[in-house]
Amino acid sequence: MSRLLKAVIAVNLVALALLTFVYPHFMVGPGSLIAGHQKLETNCFACHTAFVGASADKCQNCHEPGSIGKLSSAGAPLAKPLTSMPFHQELISQDCMSCHSDHSGVTRYHRQGGFDHALLKKETADKCESCHKSPSDSLHKQITGNCSQCHTQKQWTPAAFDHNKYFVLDSDHNAPCATCHVRNNYNTYTCYGCHEHTPANIQREHIEEGIRKFDNCVECHRSADEDDIRSPGNNQKNKGGDD
Q: CA-CA distance, 46 to 102, in Å (whole number)?
C-alpha cells in the first residue's frame, strides 16, 4: 500500500473521529430522543461518557431516585404521580438502562414490559399490591395478597394454579374462597365450612370402611361425585364408595 493511500486513510479516520465527537447525534445517534429528553438532542454527553456509554450516575444528575414518580426533573410535584409507590428507591441497584431506552430508534429492539422483578429488594418484591392495583373481578375481590400462590413475577397470565387439579368447583361448590380457605390462607383448606361433618363423625364413618387416613379430604374426594372416590395413591375409580 502506497504512502499516499495510507495518508488518505489516516486523514479520513481522523476526520471521522473528530466528526463523531463534534456531531455525535448525527454520526452515531441511534435515533431521536423521547419527548422528555429532546432538549438534550445535541448534547450526547449529558447522558453518555466517551468510550463508555450511558451511565446511571448521569441519569441521576436530573432524576434523583427518591423523587422519581413524585417530582419532575425540575423538582415540581407531579399532578398525577406515575406510580402509587415510587419503587425506584427499592431497587437493589440503580441501573437505569436495565429498563429504559431513551432513543426511539432502538425501541424496536427493546424488550417491551421487560421490567425484571429481580431488580427489587426482596421485601418489596413480595408486596405486589404496593405497585399493582388488585384486579376487580369477583374472584380477586375475595383475595387479599397471596399473589405468588397463583402468579409468577415473570408474567401475570396464565395463572400457574389450576383448582381442578385439587378439587372441582362444580355447581355444588360455588362458595366464596374463604369458606374453604379460612382468612385467605391458600396453603390449607377445610371442608367443615359447609358440610355438617364433625371430626368425630368423619372418623367413625371412615374407620367403619377400613379407612384410617382421612385428614386430607381431597386426596379421595375430588368433586361432588360420590361415585368418583379415589383412594390415596390409586387413580382408579372406586365405584360405590358408600357401600
A: 13
Locate 148 and state its grid cell. Answer: 405468588
Q: Is the pTM of this model over 0.90?
A: no
* Measured CA distances, 41 to 5, 18, 102, 147, 170 (Å): 36, 19, 11, 42, 61
Helix, strand or coil, per DSSP, at residue 91:
strand
Q: How far apart are the first and last CA of the chain?
A: 100
| Distance from C-alpha of 139 to C-alpha of 224, rounded to nearest angstrom | 21
β-strand partners of 103: 33
Of 229, 175, 222, 237, which is closest to residue 205 (Cα–Cα)?
Answer: 229
In whole angstroms, give the CA distance from residue 99 to residue 131: 16
Looking only at Cα atoms, what is the longest distance across the chain? 105
Residues paired with 53 in a beta bridge: 49
C-alpha to C-alpha distance for 127 and 116, rounded to whole angstroms: 15
pLDDT in tens, 213-231: 888 888 888 887 877 777 6
Read off the amino acid at residue 166.
Y
User: Domain limits of the chain?
Assistant: 31-125, 134-184
